[in-house]
Amino acid sequence: MTSDEIEVFVICAAADIERGGxxxxxxxxxDEAGESRPFPIMVIRTHDNDYFGYxxxxxxxxxxxxxGGGDFFTPDRGFLKCGRHGAxxxxxxxxxxxxPCRGDSLRPVALVVVGGELCLCGVRLVEDxxxxxxxxxxxxDIMIHPD
Length: 147
Known about the structure:
Elements: E1 8-13, E2 21-30, E3 36-45, E4 51-55, E5 80-81, E6 88-89, E7 96-98, E8 108-114, E9 117-121, E10 144-146
Antiparallel strand pairs: 1-9, 2-3, 2-10, 3-4, 4-8, 5-6, 6-7, 8-9
């Protein structure tokens, strides 16, 4: 890979996330020191078929947004919310507009849809150690654990 190339990892089929819905994933990424670190993310698909991805971590205290009831949204589904302290975030920007972390933002993750697959971009994920069955196969298996 050249320095101009961006690593892209398939997370799931784009259609696996319903319009107006969200899904969390527990991934493992490689940090700057080469160590494996938990990397929980959430992916939101709007009714307009746009995808937004964020680290699944409230800027206030680091808990998953869907902690507690398991839902990412306010009752009207117009905003994201933290299940612990009720902080409210804009879906398209991740900006906290109400709650203890007002003015802070969720940490975005880059996503792209390629051939019907939702992909995470620019993050080195931990590869599975499973042996490849085809020596000519250059695809990469990664650990993805939907919550």
